[in-house]
Write a structure and sequence with these properties.
- With 891 residues, the protein is of the alpha+beta class.
- The chain has four domains: 231 residues, FAD/NAD(P)-binding domain; 238 residues, Polyamine Oxidase, Chain A, domain 2 (Alpha-Beta Complex); 117 residues, Phosphorylase Kinase, domain 1, CATH 3.30.200; 196 residues, Transferase(Phosphotransferase), domain 1 (Orthogonal Bundle).
- It contains 36 helices and 29 strands.
- The strands form seven sheets. It has a seven-stranded mixed β-sheet with strand order 8-7-16-17-18-15-19, sandwiched between helices. A six-stranded mixed β-sheet has the order 21-25-26-24-23-22.
- A hairpin with a 5-residue loop joins strand 11 and strand 12.
- Helix 26 packs antiparallel against helix 27, helix 30 packs antiparallel against helix 33 and helix 33 packs antiparallel against helix 35.
- The radius of gyration is 30 Å and the shape is globular.
Length: 891
């Protein structure tokens, strides 16, 4: 973990210059909050070059931090739920940060609800745990067991129904309209059935106990609406979000953007700050084609075939569109359905002392002056600003320093508090045009009144914090939010999340696709508020752009992760294999040659041996009597306590996914079964049989070599398979001739997605050495890698088709790098991966060219090979673009 602020700023504070804009962009994203960065990562993962533009001086949106007088303050990340290892949200986050982001669980109880004035305060702890949460409530409220059980039933049932919200935004618009206008939405989903009901109405029906009502509803501050204006379904999502616990990012909120940005850059993209976008550019056909960025006194136009706004629906439609497009009926309809959220007020305290000395824990306090939240908030927000400033009746209190285990190492003897409440934008609006760092005296006086009122509450709750311990204190008002995070009305949760936000019609209407071609929306306003909601918005927008349901992908990944974790913990093999969707095969007959159902076959001959088992040639016993390849594994309990190896799991899962799409250049998995035999597990995979692998195929080619047409045919099929994999977010990572199958009819199919070689026809070299010859430089240099590693391997295979021998034959990683640099030349130090532990040195090689060893290459072959074997991953050609290369054009 990097603690050096200057090093982090090299990533987070890259200022905009026209010269820093990458060439040939695939997309521009406006705004670097979670919804913008998350989507940029998703697109980068499939090789798209994305430019993210941020108007502030640092990336991250509400995930950014700032430092004053040696204190680092988080502005928007206080605690995140649903981060158990096997949950879809956690799996998605791990994918978006390459597993580098670490999370620290909060205390249990993670929240404390404080009700009433100082002379009559009641405190109720909120525990995580699907069983413990209601049990602890029952201890606090004896006699209310029935109300608590019914509350939990409703919350869980409504929370589970959110799938239809995503579906309405992803399915074709006519189908979405049909579901909405026929009333099916409310029939299909309890989420939409309960959405029109206010939180107040539901809890008032459950109990007469006002404190229990307050505890049921206390978390309304995390989405910004009074209980009487809140949808019960929205509230249910927040409650279920924290049922399994709450977490905080180790190293602080800045770690989120810090680990996302390198992935975007690896694909050739960039995240540039101090880049205020003042308008979206459109061509004559009214298609988005770029943005205009203000730099000093000039406008700089940046073009891309796609523009995605994470700036919020109001900023996008009311500020960034030309007037004639703002007036479009479809645009106005969306705007009429939404309204701005309530403004937020934050106070930041820097304290002398450790968390132990100050009595701070890794938890949060929700403090309310009374237990009728609707009356409390309404009176406060409708009051005169001077009166409200001296009596802030609701407050959220958190200590980022107490939650972060790295804090003491980074800032010894110091602590911080973040305090959040509501405030009306109109209270401060008259000073919105003042310079942010030098607003009028009256503004400062009003802000100080809020600070004093809030500080009085905090000091009464935390007796160990005294005024002499306060080293730093300041506040951010709604107009501060407008200045730093671009919130039109100072809101912190985007558009309002009241009851109307969750009507099926609005859910189906406000979608990632805008009424304007090539313009999309991402983030909170597309899906839901908060960090998790913004990332769900990114996932939804990514699903539309990539034409695949990434929500389902994250769920599938979570299931696989849960299975792998269970194996690592030594849980029951048979049951967990079933949950992984491998069927149990009926082996009661005792026959080792026949799988009784559902696919029957006869083993003909053993054709290879792998790490865990053997490969057989087989014939289908009925039906088409196809030739099959049968891979039999036996994982012994005493030899493999963790059960099925993760690479096998990945192989089966990916092959099953590929089977669903039935691509002609991906080997087909026809059947999979698993059977527990004592302490061992028999795993059988049945695949289509292919005559030989590419290595064997090449060994039969005469010395005169392959014809150019044959080379084209093999490469074209290989690239079609790779393009399919990359479009479906799959990296092969071990592409080599032994993993490419060639049938007698010339069909080329990619195989082996993680298993020890299923097809083992040519075993002259060990897998490690063979793999080394096709390994990309960034992998050899222990740097982060992505889909471009497969294109490097494809380039190596392309050269081998021309040479009939491997292009780079090194026997150590260092030797392999030297072989590479002998051909392509030593890259510049600027291109050397900054995250590589291997230092740059001119001793690695000199200038070179792909023509050095391939004298007879034509210009098209040379150009394609050079683009495949580019040292810089972002400069490497993609499979899709390679297929359009002149080399494959028919003359």
């Amino acid at each position: 973990m990097v603690h050096n602020r200057k090093e982090k700023n090299k990533v987070l504070k890259q200022g905009f210059l026209a010269s820093k804009v990458p060439d040939n962009l695939d997309a521009i994203i406006i705004g670097s909050g979670a919804g913008g960065l998350g989507l940029a990562v998703l697109l980068a993962k499939v090789g798209k070059k994305v430019l993210v533009l941020e108007q502030h001086d640092r990336a991250g949106g509400c995930c950014h931090t700032f430092t004053e007088k040696g204190f680092e303050f988080d502005v928007g990340i206080h605690y995140i739920g649903d981060l158990l290892d096997h949950k879809p949200f956690r799996c998605m986050l791990d994918q978006m940060t390459n597993g580098q982001l670490q999370w620290e669980p909060l205390e249990n109880p993670f929240d404390q609800v404080v009700l009433g004035p100082p002379e009559n305060r009641r405190q109720y702890p909120i525990y995580s745990g699907r069983t413990r949460f209601p049990e602890e409530l029952k201890k606090c409220f004896p006699g209310e067991e029935k109300a608590i059980d019914e509350y939990m039933r409703l919350v869980k049932k409504a929370g589970r129904g959110i799938w239809l919200l995503a579906m309405l935004k992803l399915c074709p618009a006519p189908l979405a309209k049909f579901i909405v206008y026929t009333g099916l939405a409310r029939r299909l989903s309890f989420f939409f059935e309960m959405a029109p009901r206010s939180l107040t109405d539901v809890v008032n029906e459950l109990t007469e106990n006002k404190d229990l009502r307050a505890v049921f509803t206390y978390i309304f501050g995390t989405y910004g609406n009074m209980p009487k204006d809140s949808s019960f379904s929205m509230h249910s999502l927040l409650v279920t979000h924290y049922l399994n616990g709450a977490w905080y990012p180790k190293g602080g909120a800045t770690e989120i953007a810090y680990h996302m940005i390198p992935i975007i850059e690896k694909a050739g993209g960039a995240v540039l700050v101090r880049a205020p976008v003042n308008r979206i550019l459109f061509n004559d056909a009214k298609e988005a084609c770029g943005v205009s960025v203000i730099k000093g006194q000039e406008e700089i136009h940046v073009h891309a075939p796609m523009v995605i706004s994470n700036a919020g629906i109001f900023n996008t439609y009311q500020k960034l569109l030309p007037k004639e497009l703002q007036s479009m009926p479809a645009i106005q309809k969306q705007l009429s359905m939404m309204k701005n959220g309530e403004g937020g007020l934050s106070v930041f305290l820097g304290l002398t002392g450790t968390k132990e000395e100050l009595g701070l824990k890794a938890d949060n306090y929700w403090i309310f002056a009374e237990n009728n939240f609707d009356e409390l908030v309404e009176k406060y927000l409708n009051g005169k600003r001077e009166e409200s400033a001296t009596n802030v009746p609701l407050l959220f209190v958190a200590s980022p320093s107490a939650k972060d285990p790295t804090w003491e190492e980074r800032s010894p003897g110091k602590s911080t508090l973040s305090l959040v409440s509501f405030a009306k934008y109109e209270w401060f609006e008259e000073w919105k045009d003042d310079k942010a760092t030098n607003r009028a005296h009256e503004y400062k006086e009003l802000k100080q009144a809020f600070i004093d009122s809030i500080l009085e509450v905090v000091l009464s709750i935390f007796p160990k914090i005294t005024r002499d311990k306060i080293e730093y204190i300041d506040a951010g008002t709604p107009i501060t939010n407008t200045h730093y995070i671009g919130a039109p009305k100072g809101e912190i949760y985007g558009a309002d999340h009241g009851v109307s936000r969750f009507s099926p019609e609005l859910s189906a209407t406000v979608r990632p696709q805008t009424p304007l071609k090539n313009l999309y929306l991402t983030g909170q306003d597309v899906f839901l508020c908060g960090f998790a909601g913004a990332l769900a918005g990114a996932l939804t927008c990514g699903s539309v752009i990539l034409n695949r349901n990434l929500h389902l992908d994250s769920i599938a990944l979570a299931k696989k992760t849960k299975f792998v974790n269970a194996k690592l913990k030594g849980e029951d093999k048979t049951e967990k294999v079933s949950s992984f969707t491998l069927r149990h095969c009926d082996r009661s007959s005792g026959s080792m040659d026949v799988c009784v159902k559902p696919l029957c076959y006869e083993l003909l001959a053993e054709v290879g041996v792998g790490s865990y088992g053997k490969v057989y040639k087989a014939r289908e016993a009925a039906g088409k009597q196809r030739l099959l390849a049968v891979k039999k594994f036996n994982i012994r309990g005493d030899a493999s306590e963790t059960g099925i190896p993760a690479d096998m799991i990945r192989e089966v899962a990916l092959l099953r996914k590929m089977k669903h799409f039935n691509h002609p250049n991906i080997v087909k998995l026809l059947d999979a079964s698993a059977v527990a035999v004592g302490s061992s597990l028999d795993l059988t995979l049945v695949l289509e049989y292919i005559d030989q692998d590419l290595s064997t195929y090449l060994s039969k080619v005469p010395a005169s070599g392959l014809s150019r047409d044959s080379v084209k045919d093999v490469m074209e099929q290989l690239l079609q398979g790779l393009d399919f994999l990359h479009t479906n977010l799959v990296l092969h990572r071990d592409l080599k001739p032994e993993n490419i199958l060639v049938s007698s009819r010339g069909e080329v199919k990619i195989a082996d997605f993680g298993l020890a070689r299923i097809y083992t026809f040519n075993i002259a070299l060990t897998p490690g050495v063979v793999t080394l010859w096709y390994r990309a430089p960034e992998v050899l240099l222990n740097s982060v890698y992505m889909s471009s590693v497969d294109m490097w391997s494809a380039g190596c295979i392309f050269a081998e088709l021309l040479l009939l021998r491997p292009l780079f034959q090194g026997y150590t990683e260092a030797q392999q790098l030297q072989k590479i640099f002998e051909v392509i030349g030593l890259p510049s130090e600027e291109d050397w991966p900054k995250d590589s532990p291997i230092l740059y040195s001119i001793s690695w090689g000199t200038e070179g060219s792909c023509t050095k060893l391939l004298h007879n290459l034509g210009p098209n072959e040379h150009n394609l090979l050079s683009q495949c074997l580019a040292f810089r991953p972002s400069s490497r050609i993609s499979a899709a673009k390679a297929l359009a290369h002149p080399f494959f054009m028919k003359h």
